[in-house]
Design goal:
The complex is a heterodimer of chains A (about 160) and B (about 525). Chain A has helices at about 5-20, 30-40, 45, 55-60, 65-75, 80-95, 100-105, 110-145, 155. Chain A is mainly α and about 160 residues long. Chain A has one domain (about 5-145). Chain B contains twelve helices and 19 strands. In chain B, strand 15 and strand 16 form a beta hairpin. In chain B, helix 1 (about 5-15) runs parallel beside helix 7 (about 230-240), helix 1 packs parallel to helix 12 (about 515-530) and helix 5 crosses helix 12. Chain B is globular. The mean pLDDT of chain B is about 95. Classes of the chains: A mainly alpha (about 160), B alpha+beta (about 525). Chains A and B meet through helix 1, helix 2, helix 5, helix 6 and helix 7 of A and helix 2, helix 3 and helix 10 of B. The complex binds flavin-adenine dinucleotide and iron/sulfur cluster (SF4). Flavin-adenine dinucleotide binds near residues 104, 111 and 112 of chain B.
Chain lengths: ~160, ~525
Amino acid sequence: MTEPIATELLDREVAVFTRYLIGTTASAYICACYRDGHSTIPYRGLGTTTKFDPMLLTIARTGQAGVRLADAYARWFLPSGVLRQKLVLLLAILENAPTSSAATTRATLGSRTAVLAKICGATASGVAAIVAGLLILGPLHLVTTLVMPKHPSLDTHD
Amino acid sequence: MVGSGASGVHFALTALQRGHQVLLLDVGYERPKVPLPDATFDGLKSGLDDPVRYFLGTQWDGVTYPKGGEGSFYQHPPSKSYVFHRPATFPVSSDAINPHFTFARGGFAEAWTAGVYPFTDDDLAAFPFGYEELRPHYLEVARRIGIAAEHDDLAQFMPFDAEYLPPLDLDSHSRHLLGVYARKRMQLHQRLGFFLGRSRVATLSVAYGGRKECSSLGRCLWGCPHDAIYRPSVTLAECATYPGFTYRPGVMVKRFDYDVGGNVTGFEAASIDGKGTERHEADVFVLAAGGLPTSKIYLESLRAKTGHVGSLPGLMDNRQIHIPFLTPAMIGRDAPSSSYQFHHLAFGMPQANPAHYVHGQITTLKAAGIHPIVQSIPLDLRTSLRLFQAFRAGLGVANINLHDSRRSDSHVTLQPDSTSGLSRLILRYASDPAEAHLIDSSIATVKRALRSMGSFVPPGMTRILPKGWSVHYTGTLPMQEAEAEHTCRPNGRVNGFLNLYVADGAAFPFLPAKNLTFTLMANAVRIAEAIP
Ligand SMILES: Cc1cc2nc3c(=O)[nH]c(=O)nc-3n(C[C@H](O)[C@H](O)[C@H](O)COP(=O)(O)OP(=O)(O)OC[C@H]3O[C@@H](n4cnc5c(N)ncnc54)[C@H](O)[C@@H]3O)c2cc1C
Ligand code: SF4
């Protein structure tokens, strides 16, 4: 179980992360589900929080570019950290909520060549996001780990 | 008798048909009401007031969080949590095996994927009877439950003489794979020893026995609202039509009492709401509580009588391996979620020792919780989602099953706790050293076969699942010709007891790779036929 955090912060997260994942605004139902589900995220239980988690989350909340960068970096270097767990929770909600389910789960239709081209484009941009994340966030992660005495409480910073 | 699972209900029905009176004791947690029975998988999302809580659970236990590459790609949905609920009064510890338990009305097969494959004489080599003796009972079970199947290349590894229903409609990915296989089958047989065919499934392709046929709602994993997928509760309901049948749910059988002559005199059961105990007397006592609970009742009874804590060697469970794959030829096509969700295809790989036949099933992705799969792609979640959507119609998982054999270092025992009065069930499992080679060779063969059929196996995504996952717990009170302590006679009667029978997997002396439940049911019928 995690400690309660400010509703505004959660609403900011759900808005930014929903647009990031499926390109639409989050409905009131999705926001309510996220707020409720968030209290059950088990990241403390998995022992995966680090000094860098709150900083990554702050960057992710800034907007589309921030969350993409932070997520791409986290997938490799903090794969079960706080940000990934929040994003996975939201993805689980989006795939089941009536307004977002189709956008989340549908197959991409089209000629094989067209879809393969989309796959190549998406993979290239995904790899670029990892490289950018590594260049920008890698040094920050290193410094945070080495310099900061103890990671701040997630109550106030997540 | 104890237990309303697949074994128990078929034992009970045969005993009733033969004119016996049956009292069935069961914990028996019930399936919750199924919402919107005519809605499709997608229809549930738009039709339910709170679809997120339905699919993810009110406790959010349906969310699969990242765990660093371990575990399976799916977990049991919240709507099936009643099947896997274990009361606190049944404590368990285990070593090198991760067991599941059920105390549901209908047992594990309320949540199964309904693959039914008869054993051959090779599979039954360690049993004190062969296929011919089981055959009429397979036929009877097939008649009771309805099995959709087709005669194909797998018929040489599993007899095809029951009255089967026509096969289910194939989804487009499975049809594609079968089409490629048809063109390459000689090469796959000769070079790889790989044989593909249709799954034999206890799912109705046509209306049968008062149940509706599969109408492609795509809700199989969450629970078919029309019982097109067989579940033991269907047979339990049939038992209830016999005047000689009494069903007593809400009780946990602790042990049986017996006299010095080996005559069992009663079952002692505790109410699961903690409101006391009750004793039930009968002429014949039958354990069908599932391999592990049956072992516990047996050990507890001996301990109560002798003060000695025994140990039952020979615990078995099939090893399962999941190999996700992608079929590029399917890219760009639709993958409708209104489709039968479970496996349509099965495969077999014969080995030098015929009893070590490797069995598997192929499930293509249709309706499913997608977040466990998307998060496993090694890119940011947005890109992973786009890739998943592009690959979606071509995704599938090959699920390999390996045989297991009885060994003395895999056993079940008890740890009594004088303070609580509850005995803890202790399981210790040690893998067969020879298994590692079979795991490697089976994975290699399936990957090569998939590649030959034009599918791509992404590196690093194969999962060798921990023991316990397959839920095929067997071998602790094996049937055999020789009389020995902690074994059963070929008719299921426990050695040393005059009127105690085991009618579930505890009595299996060997565990072939093929899913065992068809044989559990047929064997339960066989034992019930022979009860005096
Ligand atoms: C997800 C999943 C998929 C599966 N797919 C397949 C498949 O495709 N093919 C296949 O062959 N098999 C499959 N299986 C396995 C199959 O479901 C089991 O082999 C089968 O259900 C076992 O039946 P059983 O009656 O022997 O025992 P169980 O199902 O374990 O039933 C035990 C019964 O005993 C009762 N009970 C237990 N202890 C006590 C007690 N002390 N007192 C009173 N009552 C008690 C329980 O309430 C229950 O009713 C699957 C299992 C799962 C979980
Ligand atoms: S697709 Fe599954 S849930 Fe739907 S009717 Fe067929 S068996 Fe039942």
